[in-house]
Amino acid sequence: MRLVRRSILTHHVYEYWGSGNTLEELKASMVAKSQHLWDKYEECSFKIHIDSYQGRRSSASRMQTINFLSFLGFKGPVKMSGADQEFKLFEQWAFDAMVSGAEHPLRYHFGRQLGGASREIINKYDLKKRRYINTTSMDSELALITANMALAAPGKLFYDPFVGTGSFPIACAEFGAITWGSDIDGRAARGEYNKLQGKGKSKAEMSLKGNFEQYGLLSGLGDMFTADLTNSPIRRHPIGAGGAGGRRRLFDGIICDPPYGVREGLRVLGCRDAEKRPWIVEAGKERYKEPDFVAPKKPYSFHAMLDDILAFAVETLVDRGRLSFWMPTANDQEQEIAVPTHPCLEIVSVCTQPFNKWSRRLINYRRLPDDTVNEDDLAAWKVKAERRHEGVTADELNPFRKGYFKKFVTEEETKQQPQVDGK
């Protein structure tokens, strides 16, 4: 039951008692499979509920069906709320049952409820009720699913390198983990004063920290800082330097939703022209130490960023630690972006959320111990990753962005489109 209580997508788990195409067949199945269990619940208060999937029954019909189950011999009181035991009769109706006027379902199933999942926390963390969000805040249900698949739990350290307003750290803190985060734009975490005017809220409330305070999760907030993943200040331990079990490495899990580069081109810290170095000494002062210094940014390859996420995870995750992140891809096979791989990371699962012409994937990896990694595969991966930086413009550096604004029309489809004279 501990497992189902951690689940987000599951509703309930039931002990199976029988099935049948008719009520009489259901009774025969229950007698054969579960009659030895009935005496245990003879004196308990109970509730029987009917779940009509794709169908509908009148109240009188429901009562008639429930009364048919009197052969169970329960003598306890019926309690619609707070019953000792809850039972459910599942009815599977035909797809067009309501249109065609079907009188009976295709199949019946009966079971005893063992436990329910944590579906209520989806509403607890609903973005509509959260004090501080932005346009890229991850949906509460998806954030909780991501944290669950990354195995967030008490005693673990989790990190989000694209933290934004903190959807993922909040989800991890709900499951007991201590969370850390960073973002290239520190304003997202700090909150902006102009958003507070006229709303009657303090700056402390309208910030990432304020979100943790709203849910009583401050004990799960490690810290947040301004940083770029490609130039991260976090100490990294290359392969072979992580110690026994990778214990020198810092994190048990890394979860994130990296920028897709659609609203604006993907950027990282640095200069497009390597000869320009605005942080060097000027007029006897090191400019990067000035309080008003704004670090320069340059366009960056989307594929290179994915490789950077994998490389960072390899050098900061403990052995068997989890990396879970979302990435976009086109639905068309010709434009599909392959799932990124690394010799030190084992793909645990790939879950897809489809939209119209594109989808996004939730990819889960497990950090492998160094002694299980093939050195030749690792060398080949490094050579391949170095080629990801080719390109200058945002579209050249990000094939997904290019396809998105072209509505993922393939070259073949472009050729087939009718041409307008004079254009």
UniProtKB/TrEMBL annotation:
GO terms for biological process: tRNA methylation. Keywords: Cytoplasm, Methyltransferase, RNA-binding, S-adenosyl-L-methionine, Transferase, tRNA processing, tRNA-binding. One of its GO terms (molecular function) is tRNA binding. It is found in: Cytoplasm. Its EC number is 2.1.1.214. One of its GO terms (cellular component) is cytoplasm. Pfam families: Tmrp11_N. Its main location: cytoplasm. Residues 2-119 form the tRNA (guanine(10)-N(2))-methyltransferase TRMT11 N-terminal domain. Belongs to the class I-like SAM-binding methyltransferase superfamily. TRM11 methyltransferase family. This is tRNA (guanine(10)-N(2))-methyltransferase.
